[in-house]
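Recall the central idea of this unit: under ordinary conditions, the amino acid sequence of a chain determines the structure it adopts. In this exercise we apply that idea directly, starting from the sequence alone.
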Amino acid sequence: MLETRDLTIRFGGHVAVDHVSCAFAPGTLTAIVGPNGAGKTTYFNLISGQLRATEGTVRLGGEDITALPAPLRTRRGLGRAFQLTQLFANLTVQENVRLAVQARETGRGRAGLFGALDVFRVWLDRRDWLDEAQQILAQVRLADKAGVHASSLPHGDQRKLEVAILIALDPQVFMFDEPTAGMSVDEVPVILDLLRTLKRRRERTILLVEHKMDVVRELADRIIVLHNGALVADGDPAAVIASPVVQQAYLGVAVEAEPR
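Accordingly, the structure predicted from this sequence is:
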């Protein structure tokens, strides 16, 4: 479903992601781990189109999307949640999710025969969009805050809202960058339950950047490890976590390994 080939980006003389080649299959949740500064979020930014690669390619469903900007990659089926929340702060919680539903449906040509000119059809669909938005909010336990402005939500609820928006877009590839960051202990299980639900949809691919190793152990089918921008380990979670190269990377010891 998703593949990077020799994906590389340089900032001046610094190589932030170094010739990373990796393929991600449908029905799997892959955790991307590594110490701070390893290149995890930069790798995500290259895949989703926030950054343009210096070298290498990104392929989605066999199509080379390396030259496409982020919005068109989203249209092709890449969905990204960010380390820092990206919301329409002045809109309500429900309106944030409804816009995602609307973007998905109009992108699939279902807004009506004449698109935006088919006002009557759009108005009828609006009820469907609102109903679906409310159902998704119930999944993330925000249904009771549908009318609240996104800017008024506490941090944990903003994280849940961003996940709700991503679910509403219904991409082929879900990309989560530390979805539990800043959440209280009581809030984390909501996100974990949502990830488990998405995993059961075996036709979807999930990528997860996460520092909490207990979360990684519980959810991941596979772990890849980045260190100094290079891919240094890839495989079964138990084996990767126990490997010397990962232990050294997390302990801050220099790791000598070629990109895989």
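Residues 119-139 form the longest helix (21 residues).
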